[in-house]
Amino acid sequence: MRTRWIAVLRTPVGAGAGLLLLGVLLLAVFAPVLWSHQANAIDTDHLLQGSSAQHWLGTDNLGRDIFYRVLVASRTSILLALLATAIAVVTGLALGSAPAILGKRGGRAAIAVVNIAVAFPGLLLALFFAVVFGVGAKGAVLAIGFAGAPSFARLTQTLVAGVAERDFIAAARIAGVGRFRMLVRHILPNIAEPLVVNATIGAGGTLLAFAGLSFIGLGVQPPAYDWGRMLGESLSGIYVHPAAALAPGVAVVIAGLAFNLFGEAVAKGLGVQVPRARWTSRTPEAVPARDSDAVLVVEDLQVSFPGPVTPVRGVSFTIRKGEIVGLVGESGSGKSLTALAVAQLIEPPGQVTAAELSFLGAPLLGRLPVRSTAATRRRLLGTSFAMVFQDPMTSFNPTKRIGVQLAEGAREHQGLSRRAAMNRAIDRLRAVRVPAAERRAHQYPHEFSGGMRQRAMIGMGLMGTPALIVADEPTTALDVTVQRQVLRLLETIRSEDDVAVLLISHDISVVAEICDRVLVMYAGRVVEDLPATELATGARHPYTRALLAAVPDLDTALDEPLAVIPGRPVDPARLPDGCAFAARCSFASDRCRTEDPVLVDQVACWHPQAQAEYSSFRTGQR
Ligand SMILES: Nc1ncnc2c1ncn2[C@@H]1O[C@H](COP(=O)(O)OP(=O)(O)OP(=O)(O)O)[C@@H](O)[C@H]1O
């Protein structure tokens, strides 16, 4: 990051703005020390004089030198502007990050407050607060600070929401990191840069606003003086002594420009822009897992969004100890939403309902059973549940060392000391075959290769004693060799530690390679559930068959076009009556177009096909 700032200062605009700002700040520090005497010296022989060799910009009504007074006023003007900016930023940061800390209701209230405050013109707010806090420098600082807060609150909200979407936040949430800690350690470091840049630009505007309040007599009071006050005092004589009125005005413009230009140059150089949903559910009674080996029981899971649109429509499955279950389907079939719902990562306005959603026998939805608390539910997920995301680059917080990120959850849930947690992190990195684990633990995510980052992500899941790893397209961003290594690693973890795995992929050949069972999803439903070994011969749903037929292999004729599934996946907002796949299915009958088939005997189809061998698909890799 430091090198990027240096690069900005090396550009002509960056260097110019930086020098100008440095000059203004040095002036604010040293001018009162060097020239207070000249600025305050009263010379009754030279009252209200124009420019002369002795007084370059003339004198005021007490014969004081305007030039030196403009220089000396720089400290009050800039200091008060910086103070007001600091108040605006801190208040804005507190208001803007409140939704991330306060949960659903408090968050909504904070957003409403910000929305209302933003709707008021800043100048009106400043005048209102100036009257509330009283006339004078203190009142003006508070007034301008609070008047500037809503725009920083909105900026913070936008930035926090942007970071909250990232996978490393989801990973930290699954690891059970608390809201406050999440904000301080994961979110704020990632939004600090745009905030600082915007605060710098904002300081220019604050300087101008402060001069405005002093100009109309609500800011700095005599005998103190700032540029605004000087401007106000000399305005009446602008036609006789223009320099006396123009000089403080020019000073405001130059100082304001210095902050603005510098902020803009840095924003441009760093690529900084100058400007979701929580858990609700039906409340089923706690249903104990019916199967003592069941790690995850999902019964009639629905995920919906306002529209209304229900991209996941009644998904049911059970994953048992040490089982690897594949969830496969085209893009948009609802695989990721299913995984996110299981991980409790669907945010409002998204809604999750299920007849049952339980993990290791504990219900994840609805009212908590007696003697259970939200903290125990969080701890259960934090220690026994792991999620691996598609993009290993976004899965880690870029500002923190890998080892620290792995250690964080262990410190929180297992109460390990800093050193013990770091030792476990190194041990887990070794377990996922990261070479030179001790050295690597002290490196940042960008120093890891893609495959190594993905393995480190799996290592993060292994910090506790996971019973289930949900891996959402864990190999899609990796090349084939690394993809194979990651799949092998998941398989090894399963066989060594009896960990269950839900592997999500749009690639049926990846799923077939390591899974025990395959769930095929289409338009938010599981349309077929079958053992992976039966994929080649036992698939009965026309959609599963179409997915299999679209996988090329060494026997695929090179001179013929690759098989594709005709048509496009359905839009969850516009589901047809009957079977959602009917429009693309060559076996569809009138019944298919009017009646929606349900999963019976592991297949949801009115015309399940007889078992057959697929020439173009092999599961022989297993
Ligand atoms: N926040 C949301 N609001 C409305 N619709 C959404 C939202 N998130 C996802 N969807 C819709 O839900 C459907 C299923 O999305 P999901 O991400 O689960 O698909 P997927 O099968 O995982 O696809 P991919 O492989 O591309 O990730 C998509 O049509 C998507 O547009």
TrEMBL record:
Entry's transmembrane regions: 12-35, 78-102, 109-133, 195-218, 238-262
Keywords in alphabetical order: ATP-binding, Cell membrane, Membrane, Nucleotide-binding, Transmembrane, Transmembrane helix, Transport
Classification via SMART domains: AAA (SM00382)
Location of the protein in the cell: Cell membrane; Membrane
Domain of life: Bacteria
Domain ABC transporter as annotated: residue spans: 296-548
InterPro entries: AAA+_ATPase, ABC_Ni/Peptide_Import, ABC_transporter-like_ATP-bd, ABC_transporter-like_CS, MetI-like, MetI-like_sf, Oligopep_ABC_C, P-loop_NTPase
UniProt KW Iron keyword: no
Single GO BP term: peptide transport
Cellular component terms per the entry's GO annotation: plasma membrane
NCBIfam families assigned to the protein according to its UniProt record, in alphabetical order: oligo_HPY (TIGR01727)
Protein name in UniProt: Oligopeptide/dipeptide ABC transporter ATP-binding protein
Origin organism lineage: Bacteria, Bacillati, Actinomycetota, Actinomycetes, Propionibacteriales
